[in-house]
Here is the input.
Amino acid sequence: MREQVAEFGHGSSLGVITEPDGDWRSRPAFVFLSSGILHRVGPNRLHVSIARDLAKLGFLSFRIDFSGIGDSAAVSGNASIAERWVADTRQAMDYLREQLGAKRFVLVGNCSGAAIAGLTADVDPRVAGTVLINLQGPSIYLRYYLKLACRTPAIWLRLLKGRARYGEALAALKGYLASLRRQGDQADTISPEVDVDAALRNMAQRRTKMLIVYCAWDAGFDYYRVDLKRKIEEIMPAELVRLEIIEGVDHDFKLLRGQLDLRRVVLDWAGQLQSAAY
Here is the structure.
C-alpha cells in the first residue's frame, strides 16, 4: 500500500491517494468527500481507516478536501457551495482518470458529504456507487429531539437546575441570524432544492449501487423513514440498495464500537463489488 498527496482541480485543491499493491483497475476507485467543515480525514479519522482497509481489498481511494476546506484553496465566483463541491468531486474523478486510469467511482460521504455524493451521482454517469452515511433531509424532525430527551434524562436535570448553557445557545442563534442578514437571498446552502425522484431514476437507469448507513439516533434517520425510504423502494431496484443501521452511536461516530461497525459495513459492501464488471 502506498499513500501520496495529490493536487487536483488546476492545482488549487488537495487530497491523499491510497493505492493498493497489485492491479486495482478492474475495480471502481473510492472518493471520500469532506463533511461540512471537517477536512479529508473524516470524523475521528474514519476516512483514513476505511481507505486503508479498502486498500487491503485491492481498491484505490482518494480522500479530498473540498475548496475552502482543509488544505484546499477557496475559489471565487457566484456558484453555491453545493455547486462548487460537486465540481470539486468531479475534478477529483477527472484527476484519477487522467493520471491513474480510473474509470468508475464510488463516492463516500457523511452528512453534507453524503448530499454531495448523491448530487454528483445524479449528474455524472461515472459514479458506480455511493456510500451515503447519515444523509440529512430538508428539515429536522421533532420526533428526533423528543426521543433524545427521553433517552437522556440529564437534559431535563440541567434545565431544572438551571445549568443549561442558554447564553451560548442565544449567542449562536444571534450569530446565525446575523450571517443570514449579511448574505441575504444569496445565502449559500449545501441542501439545495433537489428533484429526488429524478435523481433516483437516473441512478436506477445507470445501475448505481447505494449503501445507506444511519446511526440509529441520528436526526437524518427520521428523514429516511418518513420520506426517502418510500421513494427509494418505488424507484430503485432492491438489489442496488443496502441499508445498515448502527445502534447506540452518535452522528460523528465518537465511540470506537461505532467506528468499527462502520468500517465492517463498508468493507463487506465493497467486497461485493469485487466481482462486478466495471
Observations:
- The two ends are 22 Å apart (CA to CA).
- The longest strand covers residues 2-8.
- Residues 215 and 246 are 5 Å apart (CA to CA).
